[in-house]
Here is the input.
Amino acid sequence: MIGVISYLVFFATVASILSIAVMGLNLQWGNTGLFNGGVVAFFGAGAYGTLILGGTPQAGQLGGFGLPYLLALLGGMVCAGLVAWIVGLLTIRLRHDYLAIATFGVAVAFETVMRNTDALGGAQGIRGFERPLRETLGNGFTYNLAFFAFVLILLIATYLFLERLIQSPFGRLLRAIREDETAAQSLGKSPSLVRLTSFVAGSVIMGLAGGLYATFYAFISPQDVLPILTFQIWAMLIVGGAGNNKGAVMGTFLIWAAWTASGWALSRFAPLEVQLYTGSIQFVLIGFVIVGMLLWRPQGLFPENLVVSQSARPNK
Amino acid sequence: MIQNLVDGVLVGSILSLGAIGLTMAMHMLRFANFSHAELLSIGAYAALVFDGLFGAIHPALAEAIPPLSLTWSLTLALLLSMALTGLSAVAVDKLVFKRVRAKGGELSMVFASFGVAMIIRNILGLIFGLNPKLYSQDIVFAIVVSRDPFLLIKPDQVFTLVAALLIMFILHLVLSRTTFGYSLRAVAENPTLAQVSGINLSRMIVLIWLIGGGLAAAAGVFYGLTNQISPVLGRDLVLPIFAATIVGGIGSIYGAVLGGFLVGLASNLALVLLPSGYSPAVPFLIILAVLILRPHGFFGEERT
Here is the structure.
C-alpha cells in the first residue's frame, strides 16, 4: 500500500512540475499567440541555473556557488528569462515563423552546448546538489511528501498569479493583440513590447518548472532536455485546451498518465524485440494525439472561456 | 581548410535542394513546416527500397557505374522516389495541413507539422530499424586531389554536386520560361489577384508540394549516398534547412539556393574553429546573425 501511495506522490510531483511549465506555455501560446518551439531550452536554463547556483563545487565544473535554495531557484528563473529576452528581442517583431524557428533553434543549441561543454556538466550532467532540508526530513517518503507539498504550493501560486494576470488589463491587452494586432496598435499599444513581456514571463515560469525538476532529481543532464519534452508539454496544452489554465493542468496530468502508462504497458506486455522501439511507438502515439486534436478538437478538452467584454460576463 | 570549403559546397547543394521546397511552401501557405525535412528521409528510404527491388529484378542493374558507388538501379530508384515523395507530400497536405488550414490559424499548422514530423520519423524508425543504412556496401575510396593542401574527394560527392546543380538549373528554366513558372510567382506575390487572373490556387498548392517533395527526395538520396541513411536524418537536417531559407529570405527560391550553400560552407568552416560536437548549434548561430544583420534575408521582402 505504501508503495502505491509513494508512487502516486512521485507521479503527482512530476506532473505538477510539468503543469507549471505547461501554464508558462499557455501564457505564451494560449493567451498571446506566441509559438515557442523550444520549451526545453527555458526549462533547461532554469534547471541548470538552479543546480549551478545552488550546488556544491565540483572539480572542473562551473558553479557550485552553494547559494541558499530559494535564491538558487530564483537564479534559475532569471537564467531562463535572460535566454528568452535575447531570443525574443531578435525575433518578436518579425513574422511569427521566425519565432518558431528561432526558439526551435535555441533548444537545439542549448542541448548541444550543454552536452559538449565539460564546465557545464557535459554529457554526464550536473550532480553535487544537496536537496534542501534533507537533514531535517531525511531521504525517504516524508521528504517526497514535503517536496510534493512545496511543488503544489508553487503550482497554486503560479495558477493564481496567471489567473490574476489574464483578468487584469494586461491580460485583456494580450488577448487583444492575439486577436487583432493592428487594432491594438491603433489604440496606442505596443504589440512587440507586450509580446516580449509575455514571452519572457512565460519562459521564467518554465524556468521555475525546470528548477523544481532538477531539485527533485538532484541531477540534470542533456538527456533531460531533449526535444521530446517540448513536444510532450505542447501535447499537454493542446489536449487540455489552450487559453485555459485549468485545462492546462488537467491536460498535463492526463497526458503524463497516458505517457507513463503506455511506457509501462509496453515494457510489461510487449515482446522483447518490440521493447527496443518503445520510444518510437510512444512518439508516434503522441504525434497522433497532437494531429488528431488539431483536426477534431482544436479548442482542447477544456476550451478557453471567451469573453466578449467584461460587462457582458454573467454574474459579475 | 580547403577540405572544409569543398565539403561545405557539397553539403550546401543538398541543403539547397531541401530549402527550395521548404521556402516555396512556407511562402505560399505561410507556416514554418517542421515536417519538410522528413520528406528527405522518406525520399532516402523510398530509394533504398526501390534500389533493392530493381537490383532483385535485374542483377545487371545493381552494378556500380564506375568510378561511383551509384548503381543504375539507384539512379532509377532516385527518379521513382522523387515522384513517390512528391505524392506523399501531397497526401500529407490533403490529410492534415489542408484540414487544419481550413480551420484557420497559421500557428496550428506549425504544431501540426511538428506532429507530422514526429509520426513520419518514428514510423520510418519502426519500419527500417534505428540503425543507419547504406545504399552500397562497397567501399569507394576517396580520390586524393592534391596533397598540399590535402584534399580528398569521393566520386559520389562530385556526382551529387553536379546532379544537384542540374536539378536546380532545370527548376530555374521551368520557373523563368514556362506559364507554370509565371503562375507560381504570381501566386506567391498575391494569391487573390492571381486567382482573379484565372490561376487555380489549390492546383498550384498541389504542384508546390510535388516539386518540394521531389527535390527533398533528391536531397535525401544524395545525403544517403554521401553519408548514411537513418531515421534521424530529418531531425538532423531540419535546422540547417530552415537556416538556409532564413538566410535567403523566406519565399525566395534563388535565396534558398544561395542560403543552402552559405549554411553548408559556414557549418563546415566552423569545424575549423569549434570541436565537431558543437556543429548542430551552428545553424542557430547563422539564423541569429541573419536576424540581426538582415532580418528578411538576402532576397526576402518585408511582410507580416
Summary: DSSP finds eleven helices and two strands in chain B. Chain B has one domain: 2-293. Chain B touches chain A through 50 residues (CB under 8 Å). The first helix of chain B runs from residue 2 to 29.
